[in-house]
Amino acid sequence: MSIRKSLFFACLCLFTGTTFGADDPFAGDWKLNPEKSRSSVFQEKIEDLGNNKYRFTIDGRAEEIVADGQDHPTSYGSWALKQESPNKWTSIDKVNGKVATTTTWTISNDNRTFTTLTEGLNADGSKYRSEFTARRLAGTSGLVGTWGRTDEMRHVPSDWRISHQENGLSCFSPSVRERIDFKFDGKDYPDEGPSVPLHSTVSVQRVDARNLTVYGKVDGKIVFAQRWKVSDDGAMLAIGVNRNGMTITESNIYDRQ
User: Fold this and answer.
1) Of 170, 208, 174, 210, nearest to 190 (Cα)?
2) 172, 161 Cβ separation under 8 angstroms
3) How far from 159 is each of 71, 170, 235, 257, CA to CA, in Å?
4) 115 forms bridges with which residues in the sheet?
5) For the segment 54-81, what is each residue's pLDDT rounded down to a tens digit?
6) Mean per-residue pLDDT, 45-55
7) What is the mean pLDDT of the chain?
8) Fewest CB within 10 A of the end CB: N or C in the chain?
9) What is the end-to-end Cα distance of the chain in Å, rounded?
10) pTM flag (> 0.70)
C-alpha cells in the first residue's frame, strides 16, 4: 500500500551503457496533453477488520494484512507489519526475499497527523531516507481512518524542450522556465526554475532506449521518483510520478510537436 511502499522504481536495472546521439527518442519538443494526463491528491483509507487484520485502500485498490510482524505475500514481494506501541508501527517490504525498505509509522499524540520515515536502497546501491506526513481526514484516533497528504504538488510543466548531450539530456520548459541538465550516471544535478524548491536536484539512470528513472531530491532528501517512457512510435512521452513512497498518483502525458 502506498504510504509504506518504497520508491516504486528502486529495483529497476541500471543503464547498460548504450549511447545515443541526436536521434535519442527523448529529444524534441513536447507539449502536455491535459485530457490524457492524470493528477490526484493522495488519500488513503485504513480499516480495522478485526483479529489484528487491516485493509489499506487507495484509488480503489486494496491490500489486507495481519499485523503480526510476519512476511505476507504481495504483488511485488512480501510485506510485514507490526505495532510497536499505541502510536508507532514498523513496516518492512521485501523483494525477492531481500529487505527493500524499512518504514516507521508514527501517529501524533493529538491523532491528527501520520508520519512515515522510510529507509531503503537506491538503484545504485546507495542508501536513502525519506519522510512523508499525512493529515487525518476521517476517524478519531490510532491508525484507522482516512489520511491525506499535507504537502502541495508543484506546478506541472506544460511543455519540455529536450536535447541530447553526452551521456545525458538537457531539458528546458519554456512555460515555467525550469531547466535540468543531467547525465545518466546516478549523480545529483541541479533542478532550477522559479517554481522549483530551492536546493532541488535530480539523479537519472537510463533503463533502456525509451525508459528513464528519475529521482528528485530537496536538501538531499528524496521527494519523488519518476518513470519517463517514450512510446514505441515516438509520438508520446509519459511521465509517471511517485512521491514520498506512494504509488503513482500522477501520470503526465506529452505529445511530440
Assistant:
1) 170
2) yes
3) 44, 14, 14, 10
4) 106, 133
5) 998 875 668 899 999 999 987 667 899 9
6) 94
7) 83
8) C
9) 37
10) no
